[in-house]
Amino acid sequence: MRRIWTSTELEGYLDFPHAAQVFAIQRETTHLASGEFRSETAYGLTSLSPQKASPARLLALNRSHWAIENRLHWIRDWAFDEDRCRIRRGVGARVMASLRNLAISLLRLAGAANISAALRFCSRSRLRPLRMIGLASV
After folding, report:
1. d(Cα 70, Cα 89) in Å, to the nearest integer?
2. What is the mean pLDDT of the chain?
3. Residue ranges of the domains in the chain?
């Protein structure tokens, strides 16, 4: 269960540029296997006015934030083992991250549901990735 409380009362009071709303999101979960109950409250602020972001929209935006983590960062961590990459300084780290993002995007556009399996499939033949992006004939 998730609940949200929003307020514009602190607009102009906070020393934070463009703060239009503050909010509190309370999450209550029960672990299915153990029955353990957990409740947590997260506080935030946004530059979106109540006209642009109703409480329902703020909840949706907050929840969709984790979609990025689950669909991109988790795959970069596990499929590409990015955390152990030794390229960490200069533009090299950005270039490698961009190449990983490009590979994930191309595999998704090709219809891959499992990125790790698709990477293994592509690694078995050097022509497969080229065919996938239209650079090699069948």
Report:
1. 25
2. 88
3. 1-65, 79-138
